[in-house]
Design goal:
Bound molecules: guanosine-5'-triphosphate, magnesium ion
Number of helices: 10
């Protein structure tokens, strides 16, 4: 355990959940704070499906951030699972960051989330993200609107993308954390196995390169990560799962061009993550309506028992 030797203040630590509607910038914020990409990001809503935990260790505090799936009305079993993940994290954290998009007005989506706050005693901050996209005058109006809806402990406007005000927010978070131990070693940034992050990085590239119905129909399963003795290259084998034959065609692309591009982009990120050269082999498989099948969801890593 680390102590702040300057003023003998006790070490602080705690869990901080980041919640909000899809696409407001929760994962972008997590990655900015951690200084490394551990959660995938995209301009498509419902990018994050599982909770992603990131650890920030400072001299006087350790903050464990929990990124969650954006809260929306579920349309299939995968959606149900995502909402359970988002809501379950609220119970056992020390602080909740409710993130909204400065560009969008207060709407039913926000209202729906705030209603849930009335049964919670955990302190809640309102984080107004994407301030790089609005005029400062508009910000005051947004703050006034939200003040009337709930007694937030703090209201902090930030830009997760550009970093504005993020350090100030971290200082404010620290004042709300209880005294506690350093739960994770200082050099650990996430508690997710590399297998999960690799699958997510592949899914992110596929999300970026495809449109319309494809993004939500995708899952990625890692079949094998093989480190061969005496060889510097790590062999990763993964399968991209889609719901229809037509989607398989799109993912493979003309003469395999799309799959090649997904693989090329993902390989770069995976090499950064593993600090090694990687040989990435990608396969595509159709699994009809997988998002509604409990057994398939389990197989693809969405296991409710773990949340
Ligand atoms: N201009 C601007 N864009 C941002 C900012 N933060 C995030 N974005 C963009 O908003 C989009 C969504 O970001 P994500 O971090 O994936 O959002 P999310 O809240 O995690 O979304 P879900 O996982 O779907 O719930 C991406 O295109 C980001 O680049 C910001 O501060 N300013
Ligand atoms: Mg996300």
């Amino acid at each position: 355990m680390q102590n702040n030797s300057n003023n003998n203040a006790a070490y602080k630590s705690g869990f901080i959940s980041i919640i909000g509607r899809p696409n407001v910038g929760k994962s972008t914020f997590l990655n900015r704070v951690i200084g490394q990409k551990i959660a995938i990001m995209s301009d498509k809503p419902q990018t994050t499906r599982n909770k992603v935990q990131g650890v920030l260790t400072q001299e006087s505090a350790q903050m464990i951030f929990i990124d969650t799936p954006g809260i929306h009305k579920p349309k299939h079993k995968l959606g149900d699972f995502m909402m359970k993940v988002a809501q379950n994290t609220l119970k056992e954290v020390d602080l909740i960051l409710f993130m909204v998009n400065a560009e969008e007005g207060f709407g039913r989506g926000e209202e729906y989330i705030i209603e849930k706050f009335h049964s919670i005693t955990t302190p809640i901050f309102l984080i107004i993200n994407k301030i790089d996209k609005v005029h400062p005058d508009d910000l005051l109006q947004i703050i006034e609107t939200y003040k009337e809806k709930y007694a937030f402990k703090e209201i902090v406007p930030i830009s997760a993308l550009q970093g504005n005000n993020v350090d100030r927010l971290l200082n404010q978070i620290q004042t709300y954390l209880p005294e506690g131990p350093q739960y994770y070693p200082a050099d650990q940034v996430t508690d997710h196995p590399e297998r999960f992050i690799i699958a997510e990085l592949i899914r992110e590239k596929a999300l970026h390169l495809t449109r319309e119905e494809i993004p939500h129909s995708l899952a990625v399963v890692i079949d094998k990560i093989e480190r061969q003795q005496g060889k510097e290259i790590i062999h990763v084998m993964a399968t991209i799962i889609v719901e229809r034959d037509s989607q398989k065609g799109i993912i493979i692309g003309k003469k395999g061009g799309m799959l090649k591009e997904i693989g090329k982009r993902a390989r770069g990120d995976i090499e950064n993550l593993l600090g090694s050269k990687v040989f990435l082999e990608l396969w595509v498989k159709v699994q009809k309506d997988w998002r509604n099948k409990i057994s398939q969801l389990r197989e693809y890593g969405f296991n409710e028992d773990e949340y």
